[in-house]
Amino acid sequence: MEHAICVRGLTKRYGDVQAVAGLDLDVEHGEVFAVLGPNGAGKSTTVEILEGYRRRDAGEVTVLGRDPARPTREWRSRIGIVLQSSDDRAELTVRETLRHFATYYANPRDPDELMEQVGLADSAGKRIRQLSGGQRRRVDVALGVIGRPELLFLDEPTTGFDPEARRRFWELIEGLAHDGTTIVLTTHYLEEAETLADRVAVVARGRVVAQGDPATLGGRATARARVAWSDGEIETDTPTEVVLELSRRYDGEIPGLTVTRPTLEDVYLRLIEAEEPSAGSAPETPAEPVESTP
Ligand SMILES: Nc1ncnc2c1ncn2[C@@H]1O[C@H](COP(=O)(O)OP(=O)(O)OP(=O)(O)O)[C@@H](O)[C@H]1O
């Protein structure tokens, strides 16, 4: 079967800024795919092109079998989008909002069940403008999934969530993924990507610089382990031997023992640093935005 999303050689320029610079990407049906990258890397631009809300300059793009530059109503109804927050329904209650949006779809989720799932049941009668930032975000997510989309785009979905709300949200996403929804997620939370994503892509300067299973990205699983204890630490390829040796030395329990491998954040930061223009060389783009002449 063809990929849910297929991108080859995608480019997009805004004036002097090359926002997307030859990006390749495949997302399989049913997977959770996280797009990581620093501010300005080109993530939102790419996702907006995939959603059919931004024109590309060049490249081949297929989303659910169609070119998103030529969207149809039927194609749009198969896609759910959660943007970086919207306030336009401020005077309606949560329940009214969900019921209203449910009428747009042929086979919507039940609004009451959905409010329960996203943790909004207690706020059902509140007006949107009375909600906290985190609660509004849950409304956004509920609206993104109410039409049972095959493909769901989530743009930084848990920004502003407290830890408990984030956990509940992750459970909701895991449930959707379990039911077969393909999910594309942009996030700055590495833990979120690690928890939810089957695969991640790291985008820097408009290109994918690494992609794969978050557990093995950038050689993570085979990287040297760090064994630390209260009197020292060592990097090693054979942590078991080191621990056995230490155990003999201490004749039992090793005080303060930890054995760690690079975290996803370690690997991510290394990849991003490698992409930054090296110190002393001239940057490709000015650090400060310059006024473009009309
Ligand atoms: N509408 C626009 N007009 C001009 N430049 C833009 C526009 N949208 C984005 N850019 C520029 O394109 C580059 C990529 O931006 P984009 O929003 O795609 O990055 P991002 O990876 O999503 O960043 P963030 O993590 O901050 O959301 C940036 O340099 C940005 O300033």
Automatic annotation (TrEMBL):
Skewed-composition ranges (Low complexity): 277-294
Region spans: Disordered: 274-294
Membrane topology, record value: Peripheral membrane protein
Keywords (A to Z) from UniProt: Antibiotic resistance, ATP-binding, Nucleotide-binding, Transport
Cell compartment(s), UniProt: Cell membrane
Domain ABC transporter: 5-230
Chief location: membrane
Domain of life of the native organism: Bacteria
An MF annotation (GO) of this entry: ATP binding
Signal peptide (residue range): none
Any matching Pfam family: ABC_tran
SMART domains associated with the record: AAA
Family: Belongs to the ABC transporter superfamily.
Protein name, entry field: ABC transporter ATP-binding protein
Gene source species: Microbispora hainanensis
